[in-house]
Give the backbone structure.
Amino acid sequence: MSEKLRIGVINYANVFPIYYSLKKQCDLSGYEFIEAYPSSLNKMLKDGIIDLGICSSIEYLRHKDEYAFIEGHSIGSDGPIRSIALISRVNIKMLDSQEIFVTHQSETSPVLLGIILRKFYGISAKLVVTDAPFYDAIRNHSAYLSIGDDALKTLNSASLIPVSKSQEFELISVGNDAFYFYDLGSIWNLYTGLPFVFALWTLRRKSIESKRELFERFKNDLLVARQYALSHLEDIVVESPLSKIIGTEGLVSYWRLISYCLDERHLMGLELFGKYASEIGLL
């Protein structure tokens, strides 16, 4: 068993508790971890650079014949997620026929946004992938899709503008500008009543047989890590670099929004996501 299991890990705060707990609680001698953005991990999995990874759910749905996933585990939400957000100068209903910048770091979130625009609001907008940060991208565009730590940092730097309560958006102030903040996890849940699965522990079927023993070991280690993480969030948070930016309380509150499980309702949400993505031509 000399060849290691190559595991891709998102370098975002959302997976930090699991990753930290794996390193603290488990024997990692048979594993090699590779950190990257979700979109990069998807390509690495496709190209065989990694054997498995916490990859975008849309990547799994597009290549079911090539992939499987570890049952019971995901990165998802059953309502608000806070780190997947459309930040817009105007109400979402005014974005018809406009360009929306979307971060290059994600592949699931732009598809989810496309579904929300088309299916839930009847809006057709052009999604333009960019590597520009929020403040640069929003300067000349009406809206920007932000994800992960970048979204959390933007929200942390913002002030909430009191408005009549809405289930679909918040108004925030960033610098001297006001924006609509649309939490995509919240909107999906509002319109479907189901959780949303952003990422799965996805593995290449071709890699399973040659590394079966390591795969089985990792499945056990992943369960141990999740159980430890969810019962020690207040201890783990001080080890996260992001806690120094958004605070320990804010980061723990964020982690408590995340579904690290994958139960029947999550699988129903995943199936509906695939169905909608296919219907609008994004699968």
Q: What stands out?
A: The chain has two domains: 5-78+195-279, 84-192. The two ends are 37 Å apart (CA to CA). The longest helix spans residues 212-231. The mean pLDDT is 94.
